[in-house]
Here is the input.
Amino acid sequence: MAAKRLRFSAKQLRVLTWWQDPRWEVLICDGAVRSGKTFAMGLSFFLWAQAGFDGKQFGVCGKTIASVRRNLVAELVPTLRRLGMEVRERRGENLLLVRFGGHENRFLLFGGRDESSAALIQGSTLAGVLLDEAALMPRSFVEQAAARCSVAGSRLWFNCNPEGPRHWFYQEWILKAEERRALRLRFTMEDNPALTERIRERYRRNYSGAFYRRFVLGEWTAAEGLVYDFFRPERDAADAPEGGFSAWRISADYGTVNPASFGLWGLRDGVWYRVDEFYYDSRKMGRQKTDAEYAEDLERLAGGREIERVVVDPSAASFMEALRRRGFRVVKADNGVADGIRVTADLLRQGQIVICRKCEDCLREIAQYCWEQRGERDAPRKKDDHAMDDMRYFAADLAGEREEDGFLALAVERGEAF
Here is the structure.
């Protein structure tokens, strides 16, 4: 069984041996989801480190420490142990100690979530660094990680799924691969021998538009058209199911000059339904509301139900305080737009969140929510997007909660490579 699992494609074998060629100092693996690049790169990274170094430090980086453990550590460590490596994890220190062939090295785990993350890796001296999901990390973190590799013979390892063609990683590393002495390998799902054609076809069906071209075809392409181009309100909106719900939550995008949008979500048989909403446009109504008035509106939307949590626009500090004073449990929303849209699209496609027909403003916005080019990143047009923001806050919060429990499959889905 073990021999069957350790099958490699030609491209994965190239990943496993690239470091034996002195021409290359950097490896870049980009392309489709579930293409086997992450596992092959992680395995190669540890084999290279243990073969050539003793008593050195290495960096293993993801967008968060949780994603490093989920995408790399959890899958790699059993394989490393089967190969004869002694692996000890010190979770409190975010550290792996690996011993093999008389060599012992330290592997520090880092999360590159935002601009402040660069300070976490600053000051470290590394013999090599692996950056998983590099395109999702801030440029400052990636450049700081690269700068830490000052040990003789050190190398850089990057893998990612594609973003837009203006993305800094594409411009600075992929297009300049030759001058950076980087070997760039572009992966497709056909490069993963563990995937059957049926599974590949399922992934092809799961994406459309820019997400399809990026996550299935592995292209660095600009997003255009509707953000949720697979969703048709007249077809996909549903009636709220009859009977009770097992849990209730509210998501809130706060606005004084801009519209405010709140969504009421009920859980039934593992599915969250947006059963009702509140939407207020002060420009149209000719009057701005206060925090206290909005808190009253949200309380009316709750309708006496026991609300587990209210997920709120992170910039609305005074509104959050007004809600706390009324006894609500308030959670600050994750406002990462690109990741939030990926998660929302995935949950909508899987039917894990459903918009009910009563939510007319949400359905109106989703039908016209479109992409526009803004700097190096794709971004949705900032117009008629307030229900879209509160829906995204809810989805990102749900994804974060399920990620902690270890059972949510996101748009950049990972699984066993072999």
The chain has 16 helices and 16 strands.
